[in-house]
Design a protein that fits this description.
single chain; mainly beta; Protein Transport Mog1p, Chain A; 9-stranded antiparallel sheet; globular
């Protein structure tokens, strides 16, 4: 999904679950406010890795995380939706010219505007992406645009690798991409010191999208976002 993978010269296999934490990582994750690899306890969390300051709260559901990566953001996973997650990323405007390349390193990039409007226009013009009309909403006290998205490889990448549809570059993990049949609720938030992109969705057509969106929306509603 909005899955993040390093840019390499070889095509990687998609990951459909959060990484297995080490014992030390699991212990570190037991105490908020850090977001890290492994189980996350209920409580209040803080991130400043997307270009904005984000406070949010996790409830008693079985959450795990993928660690804050400076410049990239973080991810949250719900145990009973193993083929989905919530990805919170920065958006620097570097989009892949060939979203159907064998891997992101094989594609050049073009820099576009970084506003929420620019981002939604880019998504809506991407072949194979069906995007609902973006709605003006508020997230964490900041103006935002919200839309629903589905990805169809047969339309978007008829001659592609069939693995991923490369969207935009991230400075640490390399890219953010879509999978075939993926469904997302996507929010582009004006963080005041950069646009924050929030993805809530499943990368399998059989994933429990409604369940993830229900609990993901609760996390988003708890957010307070401020410029750095």
């Amino acid at each position: 999904m909005a899955a993040c993978t390093p840019s390499t010269s070889e095509t990687a296999e998609p990951s459909t679950a959060a990484p297995e934490p080490s014992e030390s990582a699991a212990a570190a994750c037991a105490a908020p406010p850090a977001v890290c690899d492994g189980p996350l306890a209920a409580g209040d969390y803080v991130s400043e890795t997307t270009g904005a300051h984000i406070d949010f709260t996790l409830d008693e559901h079985d959450w795990s995380g993928a660690a804050d990566a400076p410049g990239d953001g973080f991810a949250l996973f719900l145990a009973d939706v193993p083929d989905g997650g919530i990805y919170v990323t920065s958006f620097g405007g570097e989009v892949f010219d060939d979203p159907c390349a064998e891997n992101p390193a094989a594609s050049s990039v073009t820099t576009i505007g970084t506003s929420p409007e620019d981002f939604m226009a880019f998504l809506g013009a991407s072949p194979g992406v069906t995007l609902s009309e973006p709605l003006e909403v508020e997230v964490g006290g900041r103006p935002a645009l919200e839309a629903n998205l589905t990805m169809d490889f047969a339309t978007g990448c008829p001659n592609g690798s069939g693995f991923a549809y490369w969207l935009y570059r991230l400075p640490v993990h390399g890219d953010l991409h879509l999978g075939d049949g993926e469904r997302d609720r996507v929010l582009a938030v004006d963080g005041g010191s950069g646009t924050v992109i929030i993805w809530i969705g499943v990368w399998s057509p059989d994933g429990d999208y409604d369940h993830l969106v229900e609990h993901g929306a609760e996390v988003v509603e708890s957010m307070v976002i401020a410029p750095l």
